[in-house]
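Protocol step 6 of 9: fold each sequence in the batch and record its C-alpha cells directly after the sequence line. For illustration, a two-sequence batch is reproduced in full.

Sequence one:
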Amino acid sequence: MTHSYTIETFALCKEYGSTVAVKGLSLGVRQGEIFGFLGPNGAGKTTSIKMLLGLTAPTSGSAKLFNQPLGSDENRARVGFLPEHFRFPTWLTGQEFLQFSGQLCKIKRATLEKNMACWLDRVGLSEFQHAQLRTYSKGMLQRIGLAQALVHDPQLVFLDEPTSGLDPVGRRMVRDIMADLREQGKTVFLNSHLLSEVEIICDRVAFIKHGEVLRIETMSELNQGAARVQIQAQGCNAEVLAGLSRRCQVLAAQDSHLTLSVADLETLPEINRYLLENGVRVYSITPEKISLEDLFLQIVGTDGGL
C-alpha cells in the first residue's frame, strides 16, 4: 500500500556547537493522520518542529513538506502552528489577533471573516472576541492560539502541547477538533505530555530520544498487541518458569501469582497449554493492556521525564 506523505525527513540533524539537538531524524507522516511525537525533555522535539517550520536550518540531512523543500512561502501558507510557549500581542482583541494572523496568510477578507466567526465559536470565545488578550486566562489564550493556527484553513497543523492549561472540557474540544481535521484529510503533528490524550486520538506515534527515532507504533496495533498478564496458579517450579521465560517475559513470580509481559494476546492459549502440560494448576489468567505510558517507559527509559 502506498501512502501520500505530508512530512518526510531524511537523516535530519541539528547541532549547536558541540551539542547535538537532533541526530539523524528520519520519518514519514502520512496525509490525513494524527501523528504523535513523543520523547523526554531534551529529546529534540521542539528543535525538530522548528526545522520543519523553516524557523531554523538543519545542520545536515533534508526534509520535505508536501513533497517540497522546507521554508517555501507556499508551504508556510498551508501550515498552522501552535507553539508550547506562545507570546501573543496582548493589546489586541481576540478578533483582531485572528484577523492579523489571517492577513499574514493573505486570506481574502470575506473568507477570513467567515473563518474567524467559525473558529471563535468553535473554541468558545465568541463572547470574548472584543476583549483584549491581556484579560484572557491561560486556558482562553490556549483556545485563541488554537484558533489562530487554524483560521487560514491549513492542510498541516503542528500542535505543541495544545491542551496545556485546559480543563477536561477544553481537552475534549481539542481532541474533537483534531478528529475533524483528520476527517477532512488534513494532517496533525502532535507533541503532548498527556499520553492518555495521545493514546485516544493519534493514529501513529514516534518515540524519540537524543534526537533519534527509537520506534514508530501504530496505535491500532498497540491496542491489539502487547499486554501485561496476571496469572493465579500453583505448581510453578524453577524449571517451569525457565520454560515460560522462553515464551514471554516473566516480570514477577511470587507464591501462586505470576506477572508476565506478552507481545501478543494470541500467545495466551499456548502459555496456558504449556502450564497445564507441566502440571501447573491454573486458576485464572487476566490480561491487562499496556498503556502508552508503560510503553514509553519501556522504549525511552526512566532517565528523563516528558
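Sequence two, same batch, same settings:
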Amino acid sequence: MSHTHPATPLATWLKLLGTAFFWGGTWIAGRVAVREVTPLAAASWRFFVAALVLGLLVVAREGLPRWSRREWLLLAALGASGIFLYNICFLYGLQRIEAGRGALVVALTPAAVAAADWLCFGAPMSRLRATGILLAMLGCLVVVTHGDPLRLFAGEVGRGEWLIMGCVVLWAAYTFIGRRAAQTLSPLAMTFGASLTGWVMLTIAAAVDGSLLALDGAGWQGISSIVFLGLFGTVIGFTWYSEAVERLGATRASAFINLVPLFAVLLGALLLDERVGPAAIIGGVIAVAGVTLTNRATPQARRVAARAAHTPEKTA
C-alpha cells in the first residue's frame, strides 16, 4: 500500500542550508573568540546565551519543565559529553589548528556514529556502508597528517588535531545518550537541558580557572563571536535542525551536515585569510564522499534489518 507524502516546504530546505552555514560559521567564531578570551570563558558565556534563550522557548512552547530524576541524569550526561567536554576539545583545539582544517576533521562524525552504532548496538552494516565509513576515516587521516599518514605512527600529529578528533568521539557519545533521552523529551527540551547542565559545568570550570570574568581583553569581535556561537550556532541551528529531522527524517536531514566543512573552509579563507593546503582539501573531499556513501547506505541497511526481523520497515 502506497502513501502520498506532502511536498516538503521550501522553508525546511532553506533552514537546513542556514543551519549548515551557521555551524560552519561556529568554527570561525570559535577561533576568533579564543584569541581574546580563554576557551573556558568563551564556552561558558556561549551557553549562558544559549540556555537563556532556549529556556524561554521551552517555557513558551511546553511550559515549565518537570523532569524526572532519570531525565536529569540523562541531561547531565548530555551536558557533560556534548557541551562541557566537547567545547573544551573544540575551543582548545581551535587555538592550535586552522578553523577550516578542524571542520574537515569533524566531517568524520556521521561515519563514526554509524560505526559505533554497529559495534556497540548491533545496527545493521552493509558493504556499501562499511566502504563509506572506511573512506571517511581515510579522509580524516589525510587531513590530520597533512597528507602523510606515517606521521601518525611517528608521533608527529599535534595536540590540536587530537583535541578535534576528541570532538568526534564526544559527539558520538552525545548522539547515543540523546537517543535515550528522546524517548521522553522533545528535541527542544533536550537541547535546553543539555545546554543548561553543560553551562553549569563550564561555568564552574571557568570560575575555578579564574577566567570567567576576565573579559578585559575582549573586543567587539570576541563578544560578537560568543553571541554568534550561542544564538546562531546553538539556539537557531539546533532548533532548525531538530525541526528538519522531524519533517524529513534523520538520514535526509543529516546529509546537509556535509556542507558544514565546506562553509567553514570558505568562511575561514574569506574572514581569517586561512589557506587550507591541497592535502586537507583532498582529505576533506574523501571524508565527505565517505559520509555521503554512509548516509545513502542507511535505507538499504534498514530494509535488510526489517526483512531479517520479519517486521514492516519503519521510515524515519
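Proceed to step 7 once all outputs are recorded. Observation for sequence two: The CA atoms of residues 207 and 291 lie 39 Å apart.
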